[in-house]
## 1
Amino acid sequence: MTALKSRAFTVVRALFKIGLLSCFALGALLVLGQLAGVVAQRPEWVTGASELFFVPTIAAAAAFGVLGFIGNYLRPGAGGPEEE
């Protein structure tokens, strides 16, 4: 069972890193798009960036959080209820 847990942790850790990068990139695109709209005084850019990037950013953040939660339980040496 330990080998399976270690393998699952490796996969979850890789997905966690991808989730972190995607969450950061989408959030940056959202903010930069809105900032460009404010600077250029184009309100349609602000709402367009929000409509385009808001939901994917929230989904990436939620997936990132769930993967972090799962990874915490799978990490080697993590004391579960049976190990404490």
## 2
Amino acid sequence: MPSGPPAEPPEELTSPLAYEGVWRFTAPALDASVPLARHAVRDLLAEQRVPVAADIMDGLLLIVSELVTNAVRHAALLSPQIAVQLTIGANWLAVAVEDSHPYRPKALEADQGDVGGRGLWLVKTVTAEAGGKCGVELMANGGKAIWAELPLTPLATSPPTVR
């Protein structure tokens, strides 16, 4: 019978990876905050050395742009500040944009001639294609958080069938 203390689980099972964590920043509900939020998320991921695939990064930055744009356009009257939260896990990341406006948006497919109205539909589509999920949560302050969660690497897809 072996003696001594029980074996410790491997460190990778007990300790978070160096890039895991939660970061949050606020910005005024102004058009200028859209590129600032996108750059802040991109720079944070680079600084933390998150191993995010290029196409997931592209999708994430599009999602950040759409969610911040929606908050600026539709919530600024009741929410002069918005918050962006980035949560990074071992194999996934999530972004949420919070505002104080009580309106809960719906993803609509816009017609080809429409100038706007595709933002949330685009977020849902990009998230689903990456194998992630998204949603809207009501906040205690009466506002909402719109979020998207994505894997760090794309889901494996089977090659197209040749007929």
## 3
Amino acid sequence: MSRLTDLIANAKGKDPQLGADLEREFRALSSRLSFGLNFERHNPEAVELPRRPVRRGDKVHVLPPRGSTAKGDQRLWLVKAIHKTSKMAELTLLGAAGGRATQ
């Protein structure tokens, strides 16, 4: 916060009206914080949703065949496209340039 208050003070020195407007808006926003803490809203990077249908743009893990005791692919893939007729999806490994198709 001190950096922001320093910038507002600098703005007041160059343009008093702009500085006053910025300070008023800053105080209005800072008064909305609950318990004096600043919590930022965010979306989780990855959440397991086992029964949700896969859609283009989803991040997925490739699981082993049902009934198998093998450990699945632990890498994270991005679904680029879904081919409904063949029940296949085009996947791209996150952090890599290559793609792969899987069921």
